[in-house]
Amino acid sequence: MFKHLLVPLDGSKLAELALPMAKSIAAQFESSITLLQVVALPYVVGFGHDSSGTYSDLNSLNQEMKREATSYMEAKRQELQRAGIQVNVQIVMGKSPAEAILTAVDDFEADTIVMSTHGRGGLMRWVFGSVADKVLRHAHVPIMLVRVPAEEDASREVPTGKTGKV
Question: Is residue 56 predicted with pLDDT exceeding 60?
C-alpha cells in the first residue's frame, strides 16, 4: 500500500490541500504520484456547423483549456519532483471527474487516492454533485480525504472560470 498515489486536482486551492498529505506519504513510503486533472468541455446546445466559425471557436476554446491544464499540471509536477518524488501527470478531457478518477486508479494501478473534499452541503452539493462522495462509493482502493479547514469554508473557490475545469 502507498506505492502509487492518485491525486485529483481541479485547479483550485481547495483541491491542492491534498498535495501536502500526498507529498508526506510519498516521502515516507517512497511512493510515486499520479496527478489527474479532468477538463470539462463546454456543452453547446443547438450546435451545428455554419459559416460563422462556431466550430472553429469551440475547437480553439478546447485547445486553450488543454493548454492551461497542461501548464498548471506541469508546475505541480515540478514542485513535487523538486522534493524527490516520481510524478506522472494525466489530463482527461470531457469525462465526469468521478468516472475519470475511478478509471485512472485502474489505468495507473494506483493503490490509494488522496483528494480533498470541497465540503459542500445542501443545495451546493445537489447542484455540483460530490465527486468525493461518488469516488468513496465506488473506489476499490483506500481513499484519504482532506477536509477543508474551517477558515477556508467562508471563501470556497468554485472552479467555474473560463477554463471549465472540474
Answer: yes
- Cα separation values, 153 from 10, 67, 130, 164, Å: 17, 30, 16, 22
Length of the chain as a residue count: 166
Q: Are 141 and 32 in contact (CB under 8 A)?
A: no
Other beta carbons less than 10 A from residue 134's beta carbon = 16
Query: 113 with 5: CB under 8 angstroms?
Result: yes
Structural domain total, the chain: 1
Q: Enter the pTM of the model.
A: 0.79
Domain assignment of residue 158, yes or no: no
| Domain-located, residue 162 | no
Largest CA distance in the chain: 58
- Containing domain of residue 66, as a range? 4-153
Question: What residues does 165 pair with on adjacent strands?
Answer: 39
Please tell me the predicted confidence (pLDDT) of residue 20: 96
* 87 close to 78: Cβ distance less than 8 angstroms: no
* H-state helical runs in 9-85: 18-29, 54-82
Give SS3 for 146. strand
| Residue 110 three-state SS | coil
